Amino acid sequence: MIKLRSYAGSAWHEGQGESAILLNPATEEPLAETSTGGLDFKAALDHARDVGGATLRKLTFAERGACLRSIYDVLYAHREELLDLSVSNGGNTRNDAKFDVDGANYTLLAYAAYGKSLGDRTLLVDGESERLARNPRYAGKHILTPLQGAAVHINAYNFPAWGFMEKAAVALLAGMPVISKPATSTALLAYRMMELLVDADVLPQGALSFIAGSTGDLLHHLGPQDVLAFTGSGATARHLRSLDAHVQSSMRINVEADSLNAAILGPDVSPGSEAWHQMIRDITTDVRQKAGQKCTAIRRVLVPPARREDCVEALEDQLGSLIVGNPADASVRVGPLVNAAQLEDVRAGVEALDAESTRVIGNAEPSDLPGVENGRGYFVSPFLFDCDDANAARAVHTREVFGPAVTVMDYRSVEDAAALCARGDGALVSSVYSDDRRFAREMLLALAPFHGRLTLGGDKVAGFAPGPGAVLPAMVHGGPGRAGGGEELGGLRGLSFYLQRTAVQGYQPLLEKFFPGADQGL
Ligand code: NAP
């Protein structure tokens, strides 16, 4: 069995004491073990801050961007090996594995390009100078400089590659050293990525550290110049928000958490149209991909009453034909859930949905699956629910079933649909499908305060729009309320989390000389 190590203080450490075991979720075969017992977390943090941070801050944006490009080159050269690990430890089909691994690479390339475009400088200037007195020569500018601590990243189990790199790329480009911790259950892929990067020697000393397992006392050593970016459950987020460094010293925390995303069909869209097919395809993808273990997946489908039956029929057709099983088998489209705890959680969530909706399809204990020994693995088959009374229902708006499950319900008006969506208490992304401009605009505006991102589908984009489940580096990822209240990516906007914005006031010509130009989109 592989023994994972942590990379801290620019050296590998094998943990002591009790180990956590990483499994293949389709077969329950043990693949690796890990422990962080005995690791000196304070020394790791000091090394990242003092060595990694100091080195990164001396590099220009172009040089940091070149570093990201080198990371991409190394990971891309080992793409096949990484995809295999994603299949075995993540329970991903090969396509699901590509979504994670290629998503990581695409994000690295995007931020490498941002670095190149910012060029040979180490400073960002937020907007034009502001005149502050009657005499125009007294003015102010806003500058952005990297915080001098470390960026600690804690990731969820579902995207070990993308989660690792979408956070690390932004922090490194901003000039902050990273200490990254993947979720333990699927850490094998992220671990191998780290091994490859260390072996290829593409990172400045101390720029990237890696914790394979528990964070020990690391978080208790964080201070006001450090930042913590977390993706995972709302429950863990609440615990992290109670850390002294946050409560007493205002250390920044960014949280990406749960979400009950919706798809809303406009009254103008009829079955058989491009927009209709687009919506059915997007929902099917989100239920199938990573067995629905995607924070951006559509959980609720809101349609006009006259379309509900057609929608349920179309989805039953699509979801009912998906083959569930061991993702190592090429015929399989839906793999297992990641572990026993998630399986139990999904089963309990489905029971809650059963209580208020009709289960059209779905099996919490499927058997005779391709490549699976009966009784082994963490499988469910896709669930489709039909809800008669969306306003009376509760669980469907409040309980995120983190698996392949979706519920169809109807809405009566823009206001009704917006109110139903808002009962999710804030979401990452929802999608509207309509070619009726008035409806589409009203719906988008009604949804916007409750969402970090909205996508508008329709006949004009149906042929080429990626579904709402795909997070693109140029657009912000995050959402209010239940979704965590955080924000990641969004091009240069993502850098702000790692930078201090400082207003500088003084003699205008001098300020212009010190801090020339004006960067946009921060
Ligand atoms: P989780 O239990 O909160 O774990 C997430 C991460 O936090 C893991 O790396 C975990 O490490 C770590 N962790 C847990 N307790 C910790 C503590 N006391 N101190 C430090 N680290 C701690 O979440 P999950 O069940 O794995 O993930 C599923 C949830 O994540 C879903 O609700 C989903 O919606 C959400 N999610 C959100 C996004 C997004 O972008 N908004 C993306 C993906 C997933 P260990 O694995 O070592 O316990």
What would you call the shape?
Answer: globular
SS summary, helix count? 15
Report the radius of gyration as a whole number of Å.
24 Å
- Kindly state the percentage of residues in helix: 25-40%
Uncertain segments are: none
Helix/strand/pairing category: alpha/beta
> Going across the major beta sheet, what is the strand order?
15-16-17-14-13-18-19
Query: How many strands?
Result: 22
Tell me which ligands are bound: NADP nicotinamide-adenine-dinucleotide phosphate
Average pLDDT: 96
Strand portion, in percent? 15-25%
| Major pleated sheet | 7 strands, mixed
What's the N-to-C terminus distance? 46 Å
Written overview of the protein:
This protein is an alpha/beta fold and 522 residues long. It has 15 helices and 22 strands. The strands form 6 sheets. Strands 15-16-17-14-13-18-19 form a 7-stranded mixed β-sheet, sandwiched between helices. A hairpin with a 6-residue loop joins β4 (20-23) and β5 (30-34). α4 (94-118) runs parallel beside α5 (160-174). It starts with a strand and ends in an 8-residue tail after the last helix. 53% of the residues are buried. NADP nicotinamide-adenine-dinucleotide phosphate binds at residues 154-158, 181, 183-185, 214-215, 231-233, 236, 239, 256-258, 295, 400, 402, 428, 484.
